Amino acid sequence: MARKRSYSRVTRQALSILGKLIRVGRTERGMTAQELADRAGISRTTLYNIEKGAPGPEVGVVFEVATLVGVRLFQVDDRTLQMHNARLDEKLTLLPQSVRPARREVDDEF
Amino acid sequence: MARKRSYSRVTRQALSILGKLIRVGRTERGMTAQELADRAGISRTTLYNIEKGAPGPEVGVVFEVATLVGVRLFQVDDRTLQMHNARLDEKLTLLPQSVRPARREVDDEF
DNA sequence: AATAAATGTACAATATATTGAACGTTAAGC
DNA sequence: GCTTAACGTTCAATATATTGTACATTTATT
């Protein structure tokens, strides 16, 4: 019943940074929290949690908010995103569709 | 009652890419979906949605899964993340704590 | 080709995020 | 220094994500 999750330090750091980047972006653009929340179609409460770096909010919403204030996910523009996406599709076709656990890693024990 | 959100193309692209990066990372490490889900403390169903690029999953969970398979958020290591975080804190202290909407943007209409 | 495990996907039950309201606090601009 | 809007934060109600189960499909290996 209790879900209670734990997050690694890297994850918490990343969440914190993304939240701060959003806050900086918003402030630099002179938008109030309410304005940004409205544009993103969320409540000010949720935006508050996002800027605070909370782990709960939906990833899609967080990305959307980031985009709205000019924070670039993956540090690249739209066109480059498309390219990456296409390249990943290629890469995926080269990998096995399903993983057989017997693989004992690349770096085998000796 | 109906929440019904919309996401920009950039957001959808980013979600799709992140999902694929996770899938690639998992496959390259020879982990089954169930294994990764267990390590992340989530169900295989949720992992499935994450790899599919669905917008709904919690951002913290998505980041955690990404970290587990070696996908670096912001393309940097732990130490660099900390530095970025600290620098952002500085930057935040320089910005106004609250935004007054009358700011009419940096590029004013002359 | 046979086979067993991984994956894709749907669904009802349940845990949790989201929301709007509320209210005290802080700070921008006069 | 006043004023008042923005911000921080809590909370109950509600919408939605999560989970476990289940089953069909695909796929790696013998």
CATH topology title of the domain at 9-71 in chain A: 434 Repressor (Amino-terminal Domain)
The coarse silhouette of chain A is: globular
Looking at CATH, the homologous superfamily of the domain at 9-71 in chain A is: lambda repressor-like DNA-binding domains
Structural category of chain A is: mainly alpha
Low-confidence stretches of chain A: 103-110
Task: Please tally the helical runs of chain A, counting DSSP H or I stretches of 4 or more residues.
Answer: 5
Explain this structure to me?
The structure is a homodimer of 110-residue chains. The first copy, chain A, is mostly helical. The first copy, chain A, has a domain at 9-71: 434 Repressor (Amino-terminal Domain), CATH 1.10.260. Chain A has 5 helices and no strands. The first copy, chain A, has helices at 9-28, 33-40, 44-52, 59-68, 78-94. In chain A, helix 1 (9-28) packs across helix 3 (44-52) and helix 2 packs across helix 3 (44-52). The longest helix of chain A has 20 residues, at 9-28. Chain A is globular, with a radius of gyration of 19 Å. The first copy, chain A, starts with 8 loop residues before the first helix and ends in a 16-residue tail after the last helix. Residues 103-110 of chain A have low confidence and may be disordered. Chains A and B meet through helix 1, helix 4 and helix 5 of A and helix 1, helix 4 and helix 5 of B. The structure holds a DNA duplex (30 and 30 nucleotides).
